[in-house]
Amino acid sequence: MAIAAATTTASADTVALLLPENVNPRWEQQDAAAFVEKMAEIAPDIKVEVFNANNDTSVQQRQAEQALTQGAKVLVVIPIDGESSAIIADTAAEEGVPTIAYDRMINSPNTKFWVQADMFATGAAQAQHVVDNTKSGDTLVMLKGSPTDPNAGVIAAGQMSVLQPLFDSGERVLGYENWTPGWDPAIARRSMDQALTQLNNNVQGVVSSNDGNAGAAIASMEEQGMAGTVPVSGLDCTIQAQQLMLLGKQTQCGWRPLHEMGWAAAEVTLRLINGQDTSDIATEVVQNGVGADVAFVPVDSYSAVGAEGVSYVIENDPTVTKEAVCQGEAAATDFCS
């Protein structure tokens, strides 16, 4: 996404970035890092406060209140729960402070902007990958995301747009499905253990909604000698996921330019403070869960598959290096040698 820098404000304003948890390393290592870096570049006089709620909605609400008390001019929020987080946007609006929903939608009439990729298409790509690498009659496991994350439902809907017709016709069999509260890999691991037990290891594909779930599924299958024989999808293309892809154990991950998402959120933040136009960045309008129109800042996505996909991510993601990926077992792969 090509964006032009806005004029830096002269006053010492404060903005707040509210992260949902630290289970997924991307929030702090990629999204927050990119946002803070871009704000420092385009608005060095603006102070950025970063909070992490560790998957506690009440904590996130208190952090938002703290940020507002400290005089935050804009809240950039990655909500834990798209429903309960509405109180954050509503409280901010009472103070005249705009809220940007980052990655996950906030279902409030006071959500002003949303920064995200097309998650329905991402889910469809995950499912299509697994379908393309299985055959008629094969049994699939679906490890879905956190039920409180609005994205998880959209991803699952994208997956089912591909899978439901096949389940209905018998071309594929849905052997097991489960949600993963908090996107917790430990919960995903228990789900996969249950799936393998219930299905007596009769699993030919895993439609996993993110890399944490994928890694958990692979660890479970490793104990059964199945890792590397079953296609497994993912999302985020973490370093671990790319290593697993080089080893042939995870076969796909959806990649988004998280650095561009962070940069775009920073640009919108500054323009809001300066009262400047955002139509060149927020090029679409979407409706959230309460029917409110929200200015949408779209970013691209890419379905990374195998070593070629890893190469693409390394080339296009400034937070990822070949050196970082080529560690441990992955160092012995052809890609790394």
Folded structure, characterized:
By secondary structure, the chain is α/β, with parallel strands linked by helices. The chain has eleven helices and twelve strands. α1 crosses α9 and α4 (119-132) packs parallel to α5.
Tertiary shape? globular
**SSE ordering:** EHEHEHEEHEHEHEHHEHEEEHH
Number of helices: 11
Largest sheet: 7 strands, mixed
* Mean pLDDT across every amino acid position: 94
Radius of gyration: 20 Å
β-strand number: 12
Keywords:
single chain, 337 residues, alpha/beta, seven-stranded mixed sheet, three-stranded parallel sheet, 42% helix, 19% strand, globular
Outline of the structure:
The chain has 337 residues and is α/β, with parallel strands linked by helices.
Question: Helices and strands in order, then pairings?
Answer:
Layout: E1 14-19, H1 26-42, E2 47-52, H2 57-69, E3 72-77, H3 86-94, E4 99-102, E5 111-116, H4 119-132, E6 138-143, H5 150-169, E7 172-178, H6 185-198, E8 205-208, H7 211-223, H8 239-246, E9 252-255, H9 258-274, E10 284-287, E11 293-298, E12 302-305, H10 306-316, H11 322-325
Parallel strand pairs: 1-2, 1-3, 3-4, 4-5, 5-11, 6-7, 6-8
Antiparallel strand pairs: 9-12, 10-11
Helix pairs in contact: 1-9, 2-3, 4-5, 6-7
